[in-house]
Amino acid sequence: MIQKKICMLGGFAVGKTSLVRRFVSNVFSDHYQTTIGVTVEKKSVMAGEQGVLLMLWDLYGEDEFQHVRESYLRGSSGYIVVMDGTRRATLETALALQETAVKTMGPVPFVSIINKVDVRSQWEIDEREIEQLRARGWTVLFGSAKLGQGVEELFLSVATQIMQAVPLSSERA
Amino acid sequence: MRHQPLHSVPSDDPLFNRVLSTLDIAVLERDEHSGEFQLQGMAPEWWHMRVGPESCTMLDLAQWSPFLREYVAADHPAWTAESGTVEKSGAWTESDGQGGTVTLEATVLSMESRTILLIERLGSGFEQMRAIVQRARECMLAEDVTVKAHHKTETRLINQLEVSERTKDGALALLQYLRLAALVLDEHGRITFASDRGLELLGISTREVIGLKWEEVFPIHQQDRVIFREMIKAPSDRRTAGPFYINSSHPAWIELDIHRDPRHPGCHILVMNDRTELHALRRELNEQASFHDLVGKSPAMLRVYQLVRDVASVDTTVLIEGETGTGKELIARAIHSSSGRRNKPFIAANCAGLTDSILTSQLFGHRRGAFTGAVNDQQGLFEAAEGGTLFLDEIGDIPPPVQTALLRVLQEKEITRLGESRPRKVDVRVLAATHHNLSEDVIRGSFRADLLYRIRIARVQLPPLRERREDIPLLAHSFLMTICAASGKTIDPLSPETLHGLMSYVWPGNVRELRSAIEFAVISCRRAEVSLSDLPPEIVGTPGVPTLAPWIPLQDRDEKSRLLAALSDAKGNRTEAAKRLGVSRATFYRRLVELNIQPR
Ligand SMILES: Nc1nc2c(ncn2[C@@H]2O[C@H](COP(=O)(O)OP(=O)(O)O)[C@@H](O)[C@H]2O)c(=O)[nH]1
Ligand SMILES: [Mg+2]
Question: What is residue A148's DSSP assignment?
Answer without folding.
Answer: T
